[in-house]
Structure prediction request, 230 residues.
Amino acid sequence: MAQPYIGSQGTTEYREALGSGTAASPYVPQFYLASLPAFATTPNVNIVSCDTQLDIAGSVTAYITNTSAQAIPVYVPNYFSEIVVTKPATTTNYSFNSIYGDLFQIPNIGSSGGFVNLTNISIIFNLSTIPSGMSDFTLYLFNASPSITFANNQSFSVPAANRTSMLTLNGINLTANLARGGGTVIAETILVNTTFKLAANSTSLWGYLVSLNSFSNNSSSSFTMRFYAK
Prediction:
């Protein structure tokens, strides 16, 4: 990701490149710092407030006042990953706790081996109407490909070999609806605000989408999943 240089000389919050605000009600940026930046020890740069994560890799919330002519470099990574999952044809209806589709990988969702805060998830099903009975799903995520995998329409479980890689112990719930205006089945959850630790040397998550209802959707189809993180 490019390293943005933000702010200007004078006593002003560094908010121009990240969001809007005023001196009375400043924008509060979320900074992800790979290491302690040089400006933290620069006499002419005053950090008005920040959390205790500034001196290590982590997430920092700060108001910054700059009285020097030097712009401040700040990393502001945001991650987006879009995948298409193909659901094979089946002769058996889905039931409670059935896997919808197969195991999928979510690539490039965070920095290698780092923490990732999942914010929004959306699903666009390749369906124009909601199959009778189709409603709620749970998304289970892992930080590595599970040692024991399951196929489409099998019952989901967490065998002992998969425990160490499982992240969402109770899952993330989504409900299928028709998009506003109709024509496409979607599911969306916003403000998830769930933080995970990626595996060493990995930028991916893995997951299963699991039905919480009984319904018929036997033909082969696909669905697009979009993940937003910071």
In short: Residues 1-20, 27-67, 72-77 have pLDDT under 50 and may be disordered. The CA atoms of residues 137 and 197 lie 23 Å apart. DSSP finds no helices and 15 strands in the chain.
